[in-house]
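[Q] Does anyone have a clean structure-token version of this?
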Amino acid sequence: MPTIVGIRRRGYTPESIRLFCERIGVSKADSWIDMSTLDQALRDDLEARAPRATAVLKPLKLVIQNLDANVSESCSAPRHPHHPEWGNREFNFTRELWIEADDFMKEPIKGFFRLYPPIGDQAGGRVRLRHGFVIECTGFEVDADGNVIQVNATHFPDSKSGTPGSNNYKVKGNIHWVSAAEAIPAEVRLYDHLFSDPHPDSGDKNFLEAINPNSKETITAYLEPCMRDANPEERFQFERHGYFVADRIDSQAGKPVFNRTVGLKDSWK
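[A] Here you go.
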């Protein structure tokens, strides 16, 4: 990302760059400015004005066993939690969903409050599907290599978010999801730091040796239905993941392509 054209395509805004410049000030002395300073300027700019959306980046099938395949429940979520005037996003809760693979563990570690199968006399993990229902894991299925390919669960019909009595269910986990029947498959490019060293060319270092081999990963993610017609350069916060922009060149109506601009928090290691 060494050029203005590059950072624009990644999704950095003019406002965030101006904010970055205001924060670092002007100096005649040579100095290092950590990349996280620019990233935080972008977060501060987009937090108040980027619409929210749901995206599952590492999809795992979830099947609601006590819901008929022909039944769907209408759900909604605000386009932005601090801008009610922007209205709501509408989507459906169906028998088959996509959830993040990280939200399930066959053998849960201590402090894991998401989905896991029944263990002995203990019931499976309970979570609330964000803006939807409380569910309880009943089991899972694996492929020939032992990889989990499906999680099974039941839902509690009287636990729908925003309805009377839904607060009677006390759960610690809250995960996001999209309907498998309605989700939009999309190419998503996950960009990370170009270098694994914060000062790749200082001293006698060879910057080529510090190039991060995982600086770009291209995946197929599943997005909620309203993302189908995202406009090029339109920016969103994918809840739990970070800020993403519809690619200004490759994204098109009905076939969106997204670039990750920055995560919700600094991930530099």
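[Q] Thanks! Anything notable?
[A] The mean pLDDT is 93.
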